[in-house]
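In keeping with the milestone schedule agreed at the kick-off meeting, the structural modelling team has produced records for the first pair of proteins. Each record is given below as a sequence line and a structure-token line. The laboratory manager (R.T.) confirmed that both were archived under the project's standard naming scheme.
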Amino acid sequence: MSDPVSEIIFHAYPQSPVAEKVRIAFGIKGLAWRNVEIPRLPPKPMLTTLTGGYRRTPVMQIGADIYCDSQCIIRELERRFPSPTLMPTDDQGLMWCLSRWTDGALFDQTVRHVLGSVGDQLDKDFAADRGRLYLGEDWAEGLKKANADLPHLVAQMRAPLSWLNDQLSDGRAFLLGAEPAAIDAQFYHVVWFLRGRWADGPSFLSEFTHLVRWEGNVQAVGHGTPSAMFPEDAIARARETEPLAQAGVAANEPQGLEVGMPVTVMPDVNGGEQPVAGKVRFANAETIVIERTTDELGTVCVHFPRSGYRIDVT
């Protein structure tokens, strides 16, 4: 039987490209994990019960510690399961810096690309939800613009894929060499999204022969060993365990955060999302952990990245 304190519980849905990034990370590390399938669209009551309102995909749970955003998830996987590593070279800092582009501007561009290619055929509820997240309050006009700008968006995507193709032109199996790394998962989820959700994706990608070979190598890494779990059981797991997050605030804290201080945390974009409220448990340059106590869960700790998230003292 798995240890309830250390078993990985992954809250996601199959079509999520960001979840695919993490699933590849599970595969690189050869991990077993429990899969809780969540709805593609809000409301997501079981998920937001755990997170305190955060509704994005994916979320990882280990006991009563809840990890939001793939930045936090990948960092925690590397900390808990260091071998095989997601950082096989000495370029860890550069990989994290590059990931802010793959997960930020490049992914946002890919979303506009995919949404724009579908145009009026996009499901209205899905369009309203994802449009609000990625295109802002005036998402309907943004969607029309993305559709009209599709040739431009294709041109913008062609450049980075050409760079990746060049990187792989010496025959290497993965972007950094013979072993897969976090950066492979971080680029792969964009390519996976383009191929699977854009009708012209396969023909477009066929230009990049080295990239297509690499894509097959990453796909062959697999997803580790998943097994299904009911969301009610995941909530029970959080209630039956205690969070293991350390307490403290690192030196040079720019926002004056202190342990026990009440704060809210939310993505640093105007996506119309609910902030998560709690008390500071831990903070450093990379991570903010807030502690929440509810009747349904008891005490849980919710982990967020600092990069890309806004913290407000309440």
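The second protein of the pair:
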Amino acid sequence: MAEDLPPVPRNPRFDVLAPRLDVADLGAVHVLAAGGAGMSAIVRLLLDAGVAVSGSDAKDSPLLERLRERGARLWVGHDPAHLEGVDTVVVSSAIREANPELAAARESGLRVLHRSQALAAAMGTRSRVAIAGANGKTTTSSMLTVALLEAREEPSFALGGELSTQGVNAALGSGPAFVAEADESDGSFLAYQPHVAVVTNVQPDHLDFFGDFATVEAAYLEFAETIEGGGLLIACADDAGSVRLARRAAAAGVRVLTYGVDTGSDLRLVDPVLDGTSAHATLLDVGARRELAITVPGRHNLLNATAAYAAAVHGLGVEPDAVLAGLAAYGGTRRRFETKGEARGVTVVDDYAHNPGKVEAVVRTAREIAGDHRLVVVFQPHLYSRTRDFAESFASGLAPADEVLLLDIFGAREDPLEGVTSHLVADPLAASGTAVAVVSADEAIARVTAGVTEGDLVLTVGAGDVTELGPRLLEALRR
């Protein structure tokens, strides 16, 4: 660990640095919150590996039904009786120790694994690519997966969202590579020991776990130091935190490749062109000149595509032209600037953005697409601690919108904090001159439908249940 960085905290509930297990040794596995984005990926991977899988969730969903069709035994509600015949229980950090199934598993001495440990076991001996960063990791992981699929490399993958074309977020493929989105929020990205690691950016987030930005940076350096000997770190040269990581990792003996618009990048983007819902640029690849084209909007997505290209070509040795063709075929990931539909000439787009950098990028992209038409953003802050820590940054990222409607905070794993409400974001927005109101979901629908006209763009943003608003908005607009 670099001398100028503090020690990285450990989650005392799990030992993510323990030796990776073999998936064949897990026995029958029970997955809590099996319908969540990350946990459903574990269910799919274990089923693909021939493991007997059961699980539970607080409510039923179409996703749970699809997993049942694949062979998983899944219940609605939590009951210790669900653990009969189970050898291993898989949970995330969001599952509290008081959960009756987890409590029963602890009491009976069953093996309890963090999600990341189960994912590491599913990776096996494949060439592991772990993609981390405060922003862009889901899109970059998805782009890399699609590029490898299009190049007939048949990768395994575990993503934070479903691929729009494939309709799944995880699968075991027959090829040599495994692409995994690596979650830094609780330090669990240290479990994977990747052969190739991509870091899209290093920015302050998850301070409820890390405490401060210096500790976040220390965690990313430790992540880089888990790369297998002879492996590769791919880091963005346009992000100050990622640049510092690259320098520290190189000093620790890690092989580093940088990418970005910055003139010092090993892989450099020049002449980027943003054209509505697509983009293209020239890519200078260590002397070679190539053309990069994508069918998703935004400068940030050109950077994500460049990171995916670097991982495929320089990390896995895939032929560059095949990778570029695959990136051009990428059709998006659900909840990442996902167009939900159009009604009365008004387009409704949904995005999972939930930290300041993500929000700023998605609102900026939407502003460019909306042009002279109105951009209305319905934003649901995620986590009380994140809202407290970054309220003004959220306001700054939302400010380009013509109108912002703020829903109440989605607490997820957290209990409310006194004095922390969506008004912490609304107040600086109002001071900047942006039209803003804190409203309920029903009030948001009423205000949007009354105020938009043909050509306007409505953007629903957040990691909570705000995603359910898009279809309701379209229905209201059609009425």
